[in-house]
Amino acid sequence: MRLFSLHGRRAFITGANTGIGQGIAVALAEAGADIIAAGRSSMAETMNAVRGHDRHCEEVLADFADKNAAVSAFETAWQRFGPVDILVNNAGIIRRADAVDFMEKDWDDVMDLNLKSVFFLCQALARKALGAGRSARIINIASVLSVQGGVRVPSYTASKSGMAGLTRELACEWAVKGINVNAIAPGYIETNNTEALREDPVRRSQIVDRIPAGRWGLPQDIGGAAAFLASDAAAYVHGILLPVDGGWLAR
Description:
Elements: E1 10-14, H1 19-30, E2 34-39, H2 44-51, E3 57-61, H3 67-81, E4 86-89, H4 104-132, E5 136-141, H5 154-174, E6 179-186, H6 195-198, H7 201-210, H8 219-230, E7 241-244
Parallel strand pairs: 1-2, 1-4, 2-3, 4-5, 5-6, 6-7
Helix pairs in contact: 1-2, 1-8, 3-4, 4-5
C-alpha cells in the first residue's frame, strides 16, 4: 500500500552494523527506503542485506559517543548522499553494576551515547529539514526501562527514561513544523546488549516466563514498528513511546 511505502526516502540509522539497527535498516529497505548505515564498525553485513532488496546503502563510520563527531557525520552524509527523510537513533550501550558501585565513567559513557548525542542528532536533522522546508521523521530507540526501573543498570535506565521525555518534548515543538518524533520501546531482544542475560540460564528463564508471547524478541520485530512510524500511515502519530515487547509491560 502507498501509505506504508518508503520509496524515494532516505534513512540515516545509527548503530546499524548489527542487532536492532540492522533489523531496522533491512525493514526500511524492504519498504523502499535507501539507507545510510552509520556507526563505529564495519557495516558490510548490513549493506549486503539492504542491497539484496535492490536499495542503495552507504556506510558512515564515526564514534557516535562523541556528539561533535556524530553531528559532523550526519551533516557530511546529508551533503554527500542527499537529504535525510528518516533519522533512527539506535546506537547505544549498557553498563551493569550495583548502584553503590557504579563508576562515573560508566555513567558518562552511557549518557553521552544514549542521550546527549541523540539530542544533537535530532537537532541537526531539524535544522536541515526546517531550513529546506522539508518534512522528516525521527525514531528514537528507547526501552521498556524508559518506564521501568531495571536492576544494576542505573545509567542505562536514566538515559532511556530521558529519551522518552526528549521524544515528547521535541514532538511538542516540531509536530506543527512537519517533523514527526516518536520512540520505540523494545523489550528483551536478542542482541549483543542482552548477551549476558541470555547466557544466564536462570535469568533467561525468568524473563521468558514473564513475556506473554513466550519468546525473546528479534531485531526484525523492531524493524516492522520502525517501518510503520517512518511511513505515511503514521503521519498523525507524534510523541509516542511504542512498546514492542511481546506483552512484557502488559503483565
